[in-house]
Write a structure and sequence with these properties.
It is a single chain. The protein is built from 9 helices and no strands. The chain starts with a helix and ends in a 10-residue tail after the last helix. It is elongated, with a radius of gyration of 20 Å. Helix 2 (about 10-35) crosses helix 4 (about 65-80) and helix 4 (about 65-80) packs across helix 8 (about 150-155). With about 190 residues, it is an all-alpha fold.
């Protein structure tokens, strides 16, 4: 993608940028919002904002990082309109509260077919949807989209330490949610009392 061509108004280059990045931005919106229509809105608004702000793009980050930043902001704004920020969401980044799950189930004994079943995927998606927005966006960018810690920090205007802390919290929260789900599916040993 040529930034100079984009700034010069080259429609073909803009269409190429849209083709290259649409699937990633749509998937980010879908994972963050859980609704295809909302994901479409994030996708559309991301490229409209990119088009309107091309002249201010300085090229210090990659085009994909810049688009992810726009898309992340769009998704977070939509989430905030739907649900207010809770006190739990505003915990200090340095706080270690909530890093240790209250429930911890070892589901390694479950057959692989159980772990990969559609019902399990639904449970995972539901657990991701329940994450607070600050944790969800970091988890989606890092663990689902594969964006590096450094780029995630840049996209969200956070320090790398904050990204790592939020990622750990997200993973621990998911572990707890999924422990409840899988605990109900674990084979029970007969007690000989």
């Amino acid at each position: 993608i040529s930034i100079d061509a984009l700034r010069a108004g080259d429609r073909a280059e803009f269409a190429r940028m849209v083709d290259v990045h649409s699937a990633l931005i749509y998937r980010l919106g879908l994972k963050m919002l859980g609704n295809p229509q909302d994901a479409e809105d994030v996708l559309q608004n991301t490229f409209l904002n990119a088009l309107m702000h091309l002249s201010s793009f300085e090229g210090r980050s990659s085009v994909s990082t810049w688009l992810y930043r726009i898309a992340s902001n769009e998704a977070l704004m939509m989430l905030r309109k739907k649900q207010p920020i809770s006190i739990e969401d505003m915990q200090s980044e340095d706080s270690e509260d909530g890093l240790i799950p209250a429930i911890f189930t070892d589901w390694s004994a479950l057959p692989e077919s159980e772990l990969l079943a559609g019902e399990s995927k639904g449970a995972i998606d539901a657990a991701i949807a329940r994450l607070p927005e600050q944790l969800k966006i970091v988890f989606v960018l890092r663990d689902i989209e594969g964006v590096s810690i450094r780029e995630t920090a840049e996209i969200l205007s956070l320090t790398e330490t904050n990204v790592k802390t939020r990622l750990l919290r997200a993973r621990m929260a998911l572990r707890e949610h999924l422990s409840v789900y899988y605990d109900e599916r674990m084979p029970r040993k007969e007690k000989n009392d």
